[in-house]
Amino acid sequence: MTTLVRGRELAERLVGAPGYPPEPGDLATFSVLGLRLPVRATLVIVVLTFVLILDQQYDFLHRDIPFGRDAQAMRAQAWERIVLFGLIPLLAVLGLRDDPRRYGLRLGDWRRGIAWTVIGCAVMTPVIVAAAGLPDLRDFYAVSRAAPVDLAITNLLDLVPSEFLFRGFLMFALLRVMGPIGVVVATMPFVYAHLQKPELELLSTLFGGTAFGWLAWQTGSILYGAAVHLFILTLLISLAGT
Question: What is the tens place of the pLDDT at every residue in 73-92?
Fold first, then answer.
C-alpha cells in the first residue's frame, strides 16, 4: 500500500494540471468588421506570422553569407532567429505592458522540469541513434555537422528563441484565452515551419511539438523543452555526419 501511495505521489509531482487564468489584459478585445478579437492573442498571432515569413525569406541575413545548411549558414540563421524569434516577440510582450515571465521566460516548476528533461533525453536517445542512420535524415543533416561545441552553440542560439516563439510567446497567450487546447493549436505553426525537412521528421513534429508544449505547460517555462530539443538536434546532427 505504501508503494502505491508513493507511486501516486510521484505521478502527481511529474504530471499535474496547471492553470493559467487570464488577467484583464488577456481578455481585452477589439472589433474588426464584427469580429470580436482578444487584443494580446491577436497581436501574438500577427507577429508570429510576420517573423515566420521573414525567416523563410532570410531577410535578415547578409547576402555574402552562403545559403544552405552548412555550419556557417546554420550559425548565421541562428543569429537571425535571435532577432526574429526572440527579440521581436519579446518587444511585442513589453509593448503590451505584459510580464515576459508569463510567456515562459522563467524557471517555473524546476523540479518537474529537470525530471522530465532527464526522462525525455533518455527516451529519445535510442530513437535518435536509429533515426540518424536513415538515408533521408543522414543526407539532410550530414552537411550541417561541426565540432560538438560549435554545433551545440549554434543549436542553443537557434532553439531557445524558437522555443520562446512557439511555446512561450504563442502558446501561453493562447492558453489564457482558450485553455489547454492552446498546447495543440500552438503546435500547428511549429509543424508548418518544418515543411522543408525530411518527411519522417515533418510527421514527427506534430508529436514532438505537442510534447514540448506539454512540458512548457506543465512547468510554466520554455527552458526544459529547449534543453530536450537542443539535446535531440545536436545528437542527430552529430550522428548523421559520421
Answer: 899 889 999 999 999 999 99
Cell numbers at residue 57, please? 525569406
74, 144 Cβ separation under 8 angstroms: yes
Helix (H) or strand (E) holding 9: helix 2-14
pLDDT tier at 6 (50, 70, 90 boundaries)? low
Nearest partner of 220 among 99, 45, 89, judged by Cα: 99
Q: Where are the beta strands (DSSP E) in 72-160?
A: none
Rounded to 10 deg, the angle between the 223-240 and 135-142 helix axes is 100
Burial class (CB in 10 A: 0-12, 13-18, 19+), 66: exposed
For 154-168, write each residue's pLDDT tens digit.
Answer: 999 999 999 999 999
Tell me what pLDDT residue 15 has: 76
The percent helix, strand, coil of the chain (3-state, each to 5) is 75, 5, 25
Residues 241, 196 contacting (CB under 8 angstroms): no
Q: Which residues pair with 31 in a beta bridge?
A: 36
Q: How many CB atoms lie within 10 A of CB 227?
A: 22
Tell me how many helices (H) and strands (E) the chain has. Answer: 13, 2
**Whether residue 218 has pLDDT greater than 70:** yes
Burial class (CB in 10 A: 0-12, 13-18, 19+), 232: buried
Sign of CA dihedral 197, 126, 188, 222: negative
**CA distances from residue 95 to 6, 40, 43 in whole angstroms, order as listed:** 46, 10, 11
Could you give the CA distance from residue 188 to residue 70 in angstroms, rounded to a whole number? 27
